[in-house]
Amino acid sequence: MSKNDNQRKILIVDDEKDMREILGDRFSAEGFPVLLAGDGKEGLTLAFENHPSAILLDIAMPNMDGLQMLEKLRNDNWGKDASVVLLTNISDTNKIEEARKIGIQAYMLKAEWKMEQIVDQVKKIIHN
Amino acid sequence: MGEGVIVTDKNNNIIMINKQTEIFLNKKSEELLGKRTDEIYDVEDEFEKKLENSEKPLQKTLLAGKKISGKYYCLHNDRKIPVFVNATPVICESEIIGAILLFRDISRENEIDRAKTEFVSLASHQLRTPLSIINWYSEALTQNQNNFSKEQKNYMKKICNANQRMINLVKSLLNTSRLKMNTFSIKNKEIDLVKIARNTLEEVAELCSVQNISIEEKFSSETIRLKGDPQLLTIILHNLLTNAIKYSKRDGKIILEIFEQKTDIIIDVIDQGIGIPEKQKKEIFTRFFRANNAKEKDAEGTGLGLYIIKTTVEKLGGKITFDSKEKKGTTFSVILPKNGTLEKESAKKLI
Hints:
The complex is a heterodimer. By secondary structure, chain A is of the alpha/beta class. In chain A, 44% of the residues lie in helices and 16% in strands. Chain A is built from 5 helices and 5 strands, in the order E-H-E-H-E-H-E-H-E-H. A 5-stranded parallel beta sheet of chain A has the order 2-1-3-4-5, with helices on both faces. The radius of gyration of chain A is 13 Å and the shape is globular. Chain A starts with 9 loop residues before the first strand and ends with a helix. By secondary structure, chain B is α+β, with helices and mostly antiparallel strands. Chain B folds into 3 domains: 4-105, Beta-Lactamase (2-Layer Sandwich); 110-181; 189-349, Heat Shock Protein 90 (2-Layer Sandwich), CATH 3.30.565. In chain B, a hairpin with a 4-residue loop joins strand 1 and strand 2. In chain B, helix 7 (193-210) runs parallel beside helix 8 and helix 8 (230-246) runs antiparallel to helix 10 (305-315). The longest helix of chain B is centred in the middle third of the chain and has 37 residues, at 107-143. Chain A binds chain B through residues 16, 18-19, 22-23, 25-26, 89-94, 96, 109-112, 114-116, and chain B through 125, 128-129, 131-133, 135-137, 139-140, 167, 170-171, 174, 184-185, 347-349, 351.
């Protein structure tokens, strides 16, 4: 792990508490400071306050869903270049295409990936 | 609703109808008798393509002298109703003198079918959430299992495997329901099949290594182009290869052959595995069907793989055939048109 990773915050936005927590634990163990949010609204606030290096974003969430948050994020001066990994169990092409249009760095279907692979993907995106 | 009956003479003029037909067409029999059926309603095939007169079931029966049955749509009075139709020629002294059409309104059956498949689709998404949670927490546990006894490590492995099996099952069910619902998009992109095949081979490499199985590539050239949907082609190749691997013996050999033949691309997957029992060859593409020896070799299969392959191949305008001998091996051949099929934009994609 490069020393740089220590300052690189990861924001996880997911309404499933068990999911964001275990992912958060994993990223913490890898040396990343972690921020957790339970919906898009909370996620957006944390994103603007902390400018994380990568955002893991779920789609289906209460209050503000992932796509709405993504749209608001991309309208922001800092947020337009933020790194976003869409991490969801939704495989509806329309939703994914919509997210791609607004702009994401990667799309991962939760059930298909190990946390190890998600960490690798995030590291790759951060280092690029 | 009961069955509607329409009887016509050889020129397609209506000579008799039953009560049910009057209700269905909302017309009295006096208004219908003596008229040709094409003056009263239009017909579309099950894919909602409008049919020429000669393609409609009654006319086809009269022309060919053969029985026709299938799903159609009846267009009448600005309404479009799905019907199941049986058309039979009336033959007298080897001359076609007329035809009998039996039909049944299947709107309700279609609705139920749709609700059923939609439910599966929705449920699949919901099912994935707890499965992912089990997956990740098991991963976290196995990562830090220094304190585990040998037995506990073994138990952990069983949990992970069972969960993975469930994830695969949900994926197959979801794909099946989408294929049935006809609600996935087909892209018609210019693609290189060799590239897709190599990616898929990488994906199945781990599965091969467990049984020490080798796959030989026989590609007619370094790039084989066709128009098609990369994701659907991956599904076809992935399912064909995993089947071949699963039903091969230890240290077995598999050949993946891809070549061009006039306007088609041929994909052959040749294994030396357990083969398909002669008696069960007819059923292997049926949903949930599994051959006896397949069940014995691998108790975990879903019986959806070949169904998904066949349906996907057909969506791409292709055909699948096989040649198999029990205990000797199986060859599956997929023929795909180079020019692809018509692009279809729809809601969901196979994942």
